[in-house]
Amino acid sequence: MRPLTAQWVANAVAGELVGDVDAVVTSVVKDSREVTVGALYVAFVGEQVDGHAYAEAAIASGAVLCLVTQSVAAPHIMVDDAAEALGLLARAYLALLRAEGEPRVIAITGSNGKTTTKDLLAQMLPDAVAPEGSYNNEIGLPLTVLRADAQTRNLVLEMGASGPGHIAYLTRIAPPDVAAVLMVGTAHSGGYAGPDGIARAKEEIVAGLVPGGVAILNADDAAVAAMAARASSVVMFGQGADADVRASGVTVTRGRAEFTVEAGGSSAPVRLQLVGEHHVANALAAIAIALQCGIDLARAAELVSAAGPVSAHRMAVTERADGVTVIDDSYNASPESMRAALRALVDVAQGARSFAVVGAMLEMGDESAAAHAEVGHLAVRLGVDHLVVVGEQAKAAFDAAVREGSWGDEAVYVGTIGEARGYLAESLVPGDVVLVKASHGAGLYQLADELVGEGA
Prior knowledge:
Elements: E1 4-5, H1 6-13, E2 16-18, E3 24-25, E4 27-29, E5 39-42, H2 55-60, E6 65-68, E7 76-78, H3 82-100, E8 104-109, H4 114-124, E9 128-129, H5 140-145, E10 154-158, H6 166-173, E11 178-181, H7 195-207, E12 214-218, H8 222-225, E13 233-238, E14 245-253, E15 256-263, E16 266-275, H9 279-292, H10 297-306, E17 316-319, E18 325-329, H11 335-349, E19 354-358, H12 368-382, E20 386-390, H13 395-405, E21 411-414, H14 417-427, E22 433-437, H15 444-454
Parallel strand pairs: 4-5, 5-6, 6-7, 8-10, 8-11, 9-10, 11-12, 12-13, 13-14, 18-22, 19-20, 19-22, 20-21
Antiparallel strand pairs: 1-3, 2-7, 14-15, 15-16, 17-18
Helix pairs in contact: 4-9, 6-7, 9-10, 11-12, 12-13, 14-15
């Protein structure tokens, strides 16, 4: 982060500076345990913890200022809303960087694939600043912006939303030079008035482009392709003939896709390290963005082929010493990502016994029961050997699997993670492949961590 004076920060957030007016801020954190010398500590009031209680500890650890909404016995800037102030600070800071240099802001959205595409780009662009994990909301995005400095040439941002207007707000903080829309699916569908509402929310990222900015759009998703009308410059990616960056000859071996990427009259081979055919679209988006950053097609193909999984609990494959393979995709779940994960499980298993351990897909609203039922149907149709459904919110998947295939013991319903753990301990043998898939709030990441740890 470029150093900022305390008064500059106070002016940016329209706050009242109390205490050390000569302080210089060199980083911004929201967790007092992450404080380093020169930090601005932002005190948030959460459901479980009030960050103001840690203000003095933050100063003792080296923070020079706190951003607060309540009075504290430490140097601070008082504001009405900490999240809004953080956004204002990031917006002013990015404007400062743009006035002094030429950072390229790359923004990515989509119902699925944001974090994977971001991780690919972070490995393809060696000078990139990108979020850690899935920092894609009104708190995480500003914190990522504030990690950039005068040397940053590519600032890669995720923009997520659980309702209308969320992405538009994020683009006001960080107007993108390049904006990619990966797909319009049904993640967080409970916050929208149907599929058209989800599409309009994703389109906000295109509307938020800087003048002359480039939209990178999925030609294979009709709702995304239609967004081209909102941008002055468009690059389409996909597998169809109308894509500017196109994948042809896609094959899948043990879950990993290979294809030829074509763009601008050139072509190059790609072999992904990521598991799941659905990552072809994410890789194409990353290549299309890399081309905008001045990387030629052959080099972009080479870089994306070398990139591996980075963020935890996203199609992370572990081959345990005892011969069991664990596919951990427990960070998040939607109907689209659930389908992709089940297909990847079958591709990886290739005749070995396959176990799909699935939990709830959250924030599905009125579509929840039908969406979970489709998971059960698909597990049977794909030939998954054992379906383990965990928790009442996901039970429709078990009921549908039984109705679809009259499975008997092949489909199991358990109420708790502990019961799932016990079932797997009795059932798994060397050679088995087990997928763990659910929304983060379902907690199945704990089971995935245990399964991976057991093979250490």
